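User: Before I run my own analysis I want an independent prediction to cross-check against. Here's the chain; please return only the structure tokens and, at the end, one sentence I can use as a sanity check.
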Amino acid sequence: MGNVTLTEQTPRWIHGLNRQLIAPRRTSAVFLATLYLCAMASLACGQEKSEIHDLRHGRRQLFLDDDIVATTSHVTKVQGQVVKHPDNPIIRRDKPWDRGRADLYGSAVYDPERERIQLFYSANNFFKGHEDRLAYAESHDEGLTWNKPEFDLISFGEHKKTNLVMLPPARVFAGPCVFRDEHEPDSAKRYKMFTSSYPDTAYLGIPRIYEHRGQFLFGIKDAVLPDDCGKPGMYVAYSPDGIHWNEPAKWFSGMMSDTTQSAFWDSRLKRYVAYVRARTANDRSVARMESLDFETWSEPKVVLEGSPTKSLYSLGVTPYQGIYVGTLWIFDPVSESQNGPVIWPELAVSRDGISWTRPFEGEMFIPTGPDGSSDSRQVRMSASLVVRDKKIIMLYGQTDRPHTSVDMRIDIGMAYLRLDGFAAMTAGEQQEGLILTKPLRFGSGRLYVNADVHPGGYLKAELTDRNGNALSGYELTSSKGMTGDNLRAPMLWQEKDEISMNPDEAVQIRFVLKNAEFYSFWVQAE
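Assistant: Structure tokens:
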């Protein structure tokens, strides 16, 4: 890359700690508050015509949507409980080159070879403009502690070593998404970057360089650019380790996506997918693109549309157990004008990456903090989530300043969620709840659940045919039930440890729970 030298200025600081446990947030909808016997009787009415779902062994079935749920009674769907890191912000603006922003307009990636979380963030040393560069941090203990290793790649003033790993091709990185591509046969391309890049015209004092073409922004032909500025637009780049990048990055479109990008290899479709910004008549929205080779991309198509009062600023997408989990940035200009929260994430879910639902619309997934906290105005999610064996790690930019301020002084925070913990079906202490699945086909194996059962409660299971008749040996009265808090608890019956079924046979599972939160279930071959 060479010895690039950047201009240094005197740093200014703000600091803040936030210690907060976020309580579960309950939706007001209670599913079909009918009697238990009515739910059982419904089995005899048209269940033979219900769609059969083939379950893949080991793939966990979540309750973010109701795709596999036939009926419920006396249960409530609850958004998961998120815990913020007690020492947030975990990455601060403590270097001369990131004193303006250490902004997670970027990505978090898990590296299984070196057992580390790699963080790629936008570092800006200016307070009143953008000169965003790609910076790097890492953690070897699943986010408990972080460091910014320094390399001989890009110097800054008198600092010969920095944690800067790549300069933007067109003066500013706009939401660079870095991901690890395990399916790539060329190890030199193990890490891929999908980004937009263009100069900050207001800061540089040059004429506007973009124009609206339909629902998207594109660079103007023959725009006046600084001498050292590449062509504005969309770029891709490759790296063997996320630290040493090919240069120059490859330009593939004059479109400008001024947000955090989200891109990944979609193993279901056998192609790359990216989510970018659209500018619809209703303000900021989300569009989707595809590519077979990562360098030639389809035209973007809008998949989620915002509104003037609730802009959809960005969408981070993580493929998760056969579904797509989205962290949708909500931008509220009305709340901003009233000195309230400005940007926060909400959950979204899709079965195909195109049609999205918002199961807890209007509820913050990671809430902004109270007045005076360092995350009181904005929580800006990374391009994807980091999924580990027992938990989900979420990293985000945070600030107590509004979006209207160029001088946002963003640091990076972190939060945890239990594995599969996006949503739970819950029942209280007084009333037993019921969940009946649609017909499922999975052959033989052992049934597992992820649940938190409180004292005095239980979670039990019964297998039925499609007419509602309990299968011998798998009756509710034979279920041993589950108690306690367990991410992987087997469901057992008095005389049955495993389920033995013809591979072509479809059954339904009736779960009965009390004083419990139920997150997921799956069948695993033993």
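Sanity check: Residues 392 and 509 are 27 Å apart (CA to CA).
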